[in-house]
Design brief:
The protein is an all-alpha fold. It contains 11 helices and no strands. The protein has one domain. Helix 8 runs antiparallel to helix 9.
Length: about 250
Amino acid sequence: MLTDMLPAFIATIFAASLVQGATGFGFALVAVSVLSLLTPLTHATPLLALLNVPVSTYLLLKLRRSIEWPELVGLLVGVGVGVPFGVHVLVNWPQEVLLRILAVVLFLAVARSLTRKQEDPVDAVESASEKPAALKAATSLGAGWAAGALGGAFGTSGPPLIAYVYCRPWSKEQRTGSLQALFLLCNVCAISLFAANGLYTRDLFITSAACLPATLVGALAGFALFRRLPRRGLEVFVAVFLTFVGIKLLIWA
């Protein structure tokens, strides 16, 4: 039963919430990388969707004035279309295949994190303005769909959204706030489909309730570090951790 592993679940959720509070992303990547070693993804993914909602909501409310809503329309549509596909994959594909796909997702997230450059705002504006409108729309829809599919299957909608958002000429607050709006939509859509597929059980709800305080405390503590923590150092630490987990998943899946 899930409740038999509550201490490990609570510690994992606290660490994941701390990372998201401090950086604006990383909750699902950190949490699912550990929980996938403890319980099937059909338990871990619905649990993370429930717990991610308060984290994203808290950060969304804090940064709501910074969100670039007009720029998010394509991403939001893509997320809404991608989530059902991801849930279908989670429910119907073999667990071993899912774990190996998850390992690849972790490696891609690590590669993106370690190779991402801090783009100069002037260069970013010029680069963004040079792209044709049709290409911008296709890119946002594609990134949103990929995020929704990953969110529905693993709860890890972050990598495509982060890759897109960090190519925009936005401030840290604009990027972080916009990510929370996208994460929240993805999780709300996924939760409704998980429920329709019977993935929520009494045991899972009890586990979720027990982990909720750790989620909130971690998010509060992480946001307190939002402007103080050396962000790049934390990203490198998380990237190394995810690499080790990804290797383990490939070997033992």
